[in-house]
Amino acid sequence: MANVKRGGWLKIWAISCAIILTGCQMSATLMGERGRVVRVASGQTVEVELDGRLETIRLIGLDAPDLQQSPWGVEAKQMLEDAIEGKVVGVEFDRETVDRFDRKLAYLWFDGTLVNAQIVERGYGLAVSRPPNVKYETQLQHASARARLLGLGIWNPETPMRQTPGEFRRQRANSDTKTSL
Q1: How many C-beta neighbours within 10 Å does residue 166 have?
Q2: Residue 102 exposure: Cα atoms within 13 Å on the Cβ side
Q3: Cα torsion for 37, 105, 77, 163, to the nearest 10°?
Q4: Of 9, 46, 131, 143, which is most buried by a Cβ count within 10 Å?
């Protein structure tokens, strides 16, 4: 009888271990590929080494200030450098994987945290929905609301960002067009 119980427990233990290991593998798979952040180009664009190749990745769901949008663009880039440069991150793709500039579109994960939402939550970017890539839209909107309520970064009432990054880029493009005429 004791051998039967011991054998039964051994089977239960083996099955439990298999389920746990399968769950861990599924979690890693859901997070996507893993790669090392080689360089942070801006508050929303990084270069990641994936499977021996260097990929430019534009973070999904946010719009960070342009580097010339002082002081927020440089601060957003610095925050991202401090958070993930040189580190191994999870790279998760959504429905649309490449943008018109041939950059990969992805969510980045580091230490169990969605980096895209972390940028927005700290006030270094705006949450921007761009269908069909909306997997974490609610999380990004909540992060934006929190930053705004706390007056963080671009939401600081003493030095607020006056133009969205998109407006800033369009204005620069228009002024560049006018000066070249």
Answers
A1: 12
A2: 2
A3: 180
A4: 46
Unique residue bearing structure tokens 């580190």: 87
Parse the chain into domains and list their residue ranges: 32-169
- pLDDT tens digits, one per residue of 56-74: 999 999 999 999 998 999 9
What tens digit of pLDDT does each residue of 84-128 get?
Answer: 999 999 999 999 999 999 999 999 999 999 999 999 999 999 999
Whether the model pTM is above 0.85: no
Q: Quick check: 64 and 76 in contact, CB under 8 A?
A: yes
**Domain at 32-169: CATH code:** 2.40.50.90
- CA–CA separation, 22 vs 111, rounded Å? 20
> Comparing C-alpha atoms, which of 77, 97, 79, 68 is closest to residue 165?
68
Q: How far apart are CA 50 and CA 119, in angstroms?
A: 22
